[in-house]
Amino acid sequence: MKLLFLSQSLLIGFLPLATAFPSAMLAAAANDPGVLKRAEEISKLLKERQAGADAATGVFEPLNTFNAKAQYVNVSKGSGHEYVAPGPNDLRGPCPGLNAFANHNFLPHNGYASVSQYIDATTKVVGMGPILSVFLSAYGGAIDGDILNWSMGGTPSLTQGGVTGVLGNGLIGSHNKYEGDASPTRPDLYQSGNNYKTVTSQFQEMIDYSPGGEVTLDSLTSFRSHRFDTQISSNPKFFNGPFTGVLVQPAAYTFIYRFMANHSAEFPAGRLSYDVIQSWFGVQGSNGQYNAVQGTERIPENWYRRAIEYPYEVEYFNADLLAAATLHPKFLDIGGNTGTTNSFTGVDVSDFTGGVFNSKTLLDGNNLGCFVYQLAAQAKPDAVLGVLTQLTNAVGNIIGKLGCPQLQAIDDAQLSQFPGYSQKPVY
Ligand code: HEM
Ligand SMILES: *[C@@H]1O[C@H](CO)[C@@H](O)[C@H](O)[C@H]1NC(C)=O
Ligand SMILES: *[C@@H]1O[C@H](CO)[C@@H](O)[C@H](O)[C@H]1NC(C)=O
Ligand SMILES: CC(=O)N[C@H]1CO[C@H](CO)[C@@H](O)[C@@H]1O
């Protein structure tokens, strides 16, 4: 049995974050006493079936605070953020949000950026909460780059990333570490040979799952369930990883509504029309005759981001994660197909985590949040996590805040039975 011991600093909890981060906001969020109360409220709504996948919306966005001036994102001509299509030397990858940011010069146009630049863009342009943003951005540095900088596409060339660019393989090269299976519009790596090009038919299916002209969190959650089942029945190497399946996969679905929807006084929590999602995903043509062109993701003109008062922070994301898993418990099944289609086998959560978590209590309190963020370490078993200060601080900040039971070790040998895990990707 191979045990991975998590570094001491990961377990301590509150460590100061680097000064570059918006520390006042972080401190305010970390001291918020309402976290558990809100989790209870949401699980009550779900148990009583008074709400669906969007149960968290009313709890986290109780008031209409729409402010057109503050939420408007100006991408019109002369703004400095007009759309510029990527050239052949620009890095673009599986994330439509980051691709769009680079196309609009909210991130460097070549697609290679520093952790601070990712934090700045995600918090300002779409209202990602600072703690979630620091975590996702720092994780990119640790997994995909050289800690300070990373590529949103593939491996940067020397000219794209300078001498520091040679260490990481970018988001495209992070299969099972950041990038995973059953994505909304991207294919599974071991089934299709690529993990980042938008598949037109998958985009069309997402629209078909969302009748009535708009895409909602409910429609996206049903679509995710369908994608999950489709990949089990078609990809012999389908793998639902502990981190990529349980944390990144839900983000790939909830971010669509939470970050891409347009906001207005009438729809303060957002309304995501076909036109708006089409632009964000870089899809040409019209319903029934779409043509997706990965890399051309675009922020629509006249678009209003989420409310300034209600950033999409860790607890909000966790609540969405919990709601989706309550509706479809299979989302939490860590495991995969064993080499043939429809052979999905799950690992025992309790065995996997040395008894700290088990599948029966995973949906209680903050257990699910604690589980997934501590698993962030699992994705980079070869690293001495103690030296990855940015990442360990970010994870420590989250698990300290959630009051987590301490995960001492992960038995990742259990995953070796899955070809989708044991096969090493070639980049
Ligand atoms: C630093 C912040 C971010 C990081 C590190 C990140 C990383 C990733 C990664 C690794 C994937 C691939 C996941 C998979 O295999 O399914 C992904 C997909 C995705 N991301 Fe991001 N992302 C970030 C911010 C954003 C933002 C701000 C948005 C929305 C504006 C966004 C929207 C999406 C969507 C919709 C997908 C799924 C694409 C598809 O398969 O259809 N992301 N992101
Ligand atoms: C958006 O930017 C353009 C170019 O700078 C400017 O002319 C326009 O007034 C701006 N729009 C708003 C609503 O601020
Ligand atoms: C966003 O909503 C406002 C208010 O309804 C509308 O004027 C604007 O055109 C919408 N933007 C997009 C991109 O649909
Ligand atoms: C090559 C490159 O872009 N390096 C950058 C990495 O990040 C640091 C810190 O933000 C920058 O100073 C470098 O220029």
Number of strands: 13
Radius of gyration: 20 Å
Bound molecules: protoporphyrin IX containing FE, 2-acetamido-2-deoxy-beta-D-glucopyranose
Characterize the largest beta sheet: strand count, sense, and whether it forms a barrel.
Answer: 3 strands, antiparallel
Biggest sheet: strands side by side, in what order?
6-11-12
User: Which outline best applies?
Assistant: globular
**CATH level-4 homologous superfamily:** Chloroperoxidase-like
Quickly give the structural class: mainly alpha
Low-confidence stretches: 1-31, 381-386
Number of domains: 1
What is the name of the CATH topology?
Chloroperoxidase
End-to-end CA span: 29 Å
CATH architecture type: Orthogonal Bundle
The CATH C-level class name: Mainly Alpha
Q: Strand content of the residues, in percent?
A: 5-15%
The number of distinct helices, counting runs of at least 4 residues, comes to 19
Mean pLDDT: 87
Q: Report the helical percentage.
A: 40-55%
Overview of this protein structure:
The structure is a single chain. The protein has helices at 8-12, 23-30, 35-47, 55-60, 68-71, 96-103, 115-125, 130-144, 158-161, 189-192, 200-208, 217-234, 244-260, 274-280, 314-327, 349-352, 367-374, 389-402, 419-422; strands at 3-5, 72-73, 112-114, 149-151, 214-215, 239-240, 272-273, 283-286, 289-292, 303-304, 335-336, 345-346, 409-411. Residues 1-31 and 381-386 have low confidence and may be disordered. It is built from 19 helices and 13 strands. The longest helix is centred in the middle third of the chain and has 18 residues, at 217-234. It is mainly alpha-helical and 427 residues long. The chain is globular and about 55 Å long. The chain has one domain (70-415): Chloroperoxidase (Orthogonal Bundle). The strands form six sheets. The protein has a three-stranded antiparallel β-sheet with strand order 6-11-12. The two termini are 29 Å apart. Bound molecules: protoporphyrin IX containing FE and 2-acetamido-2-deoxy-beta-D-glucopyranose (NAG) (3 copies). Protoporphyrin IX containing FE (HEM) is lined by residues 94-98, 118, 122, 126, 128, 136-137, 140, 171, 178-180, 183-186, 248, 252, 255-256, 259-260.
